[in-house]
Write a structure and sequence with these properties.
Layout: E1 2-5, E2 9-12, E3 22-23, E4 39-43, E5 46-47, E6 57-58, E7 61-62, E8 67-69, E9 73-77
Antiparallel strand pairs: 1-2, 3-5, 4-9, 6-7, 8-9
Domain Ig-like: 16-80
Protein name: Ig-like domain-containing protein
Pfam family, one: I-set
Length: 80
């Protein structure tokens, strides 16, 4: 697993990678705000072999639903 974050940098959690890791951050923010009821669009551009699997986390918990996932972008619906 590879973890990427503005404060964390780039870390691997399963040992050395057989392929060079590449990342291109488009936007870094320690905090994003969205009004309740509005959507938040997050985008991730990655390359790798094998093709990377993308997971999103909030407060160290993987975001599962409500989540609309495209190939490399997702929309989180803001609800309470």
């Amino acid at each position: 697993m590879v973890l990427i974050g503005p404060k964390r940098g780039l870390q691997t959690t399963d040992g050395p990678s057989a392929y060079p890791l590449q990342m291109r951050p488009l936007y870094h923010a320690d905090q994003l705000e969205v009004d309740e009821g509005n959507d938040l669009m997050l985008t991730c551009q990655v390359r790798g072999r094998p093709t990377p699997l993308i997971s999103w986390y909030h407060n160290h918990t993987e975001i599962k639903t409500p989540w609309k996932l495209g190939s490399r972008a997702g929309v989180i619906q803001s609800t309470r």
